[in-house]
Amino acid sequence: MIPTAAIVLSLLGLLLQAAFILVEHKKNYVSAVILKGSASLVFVTIGIIGFMNCSNTSFGRMVLLGLIFGAMGDILLNLRYLSEKNGQKIFLAGIAVFLTGHIMYLLALIPLSDNLIISFIAGAACAAILLAYIFHRMKIKLAFKLFGVFYIGAI
Q: How far is it, in rounded angstroms, from Cα 53 to Cα 61?
């Protein structure tokens, strides 16, 4: 059963995310970072509630760590707009932090896989198709391509 607190927090997170989208669209980036960080804090809090109710603590710990890295990635990706000079570096750092979070999710899920080889092949094929499409459609710098390969591969 889902705790009432998680439902209330989910609605709060949805409202914060909607406000973030509206504010970012208006290019009010300071407020956008605050709203995105707040929305991220909400999903980390829901992750803490889930971890406290999780019977598989190893799984729950890895998912919670993934959520924490995801929150940090959200904040970094939005901080890039606040620094013209370092925006690209901040963006790459955000992608690296997101990658770390997705590795945590993989570490949570791998022990639960009934057929790891089939799962890996299916994931690699999907990632390859998506990357081929992205690289074909967009002019992307090499650094972004390298991060993209690892990031989309982990997802």
A: 11
